[in-house]
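Progress report, Aim 2. The chain analyzed during this reporting quarter is listed below.
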Amino acid sequence: MQRLIIIGGVVAAALIVILANAFYIVSLDQQAIVLRFGQYQYAVNADGSQRGAGLHFKVPVIENVIYYDKRNMGFDLDSAEIIAADQQRLNVDAIARWRIKDPTQFFRAATSMENGLAQLRQGLAAGHHLRPARQCDAAYQDVPSVEHDDSRHRDHRRPHPSGRPA
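Predicted structure tokens for the chain:
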């Protein structure tokens, strides 16, 4: 009798673990692809996909889910030197903004998010090394300054006649 209880407990625990791995959640700011034995099956919450965000079912052990961020992402680029039209050298510090529009294509090209970021960095860095001193059509005076005019941040609304804020 005791042996039957132990076997029943082990089977129940195994079923709970399998069922817990059978469901996955894709939030609104994520997109996912489902792989069966490593091969692409379908996308979830991607642009143009029929499956939206929420709770979904997958076959445990056979299917795997890879999540990608749906939001705009970015990272800092190395600073580069640009020569303005008036021959002054400008040091430009830039960022790259990007997002994954098609997770299927991203998976086929990069497999994982880390590989995709490495490929993007490598491509952008190669562009920096090919053109170490870029030409710029703008003169130095036309380039916006980092120093901002504080008048843009002031509240220009007229005060209310009673003295209360508008």
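Confidence is low (pLDDT under 50) at residues 129-136, 146-158. The first helix runs from residue 2 to 20. These observations will guide the mutagenesis work planned for the next reporting period.
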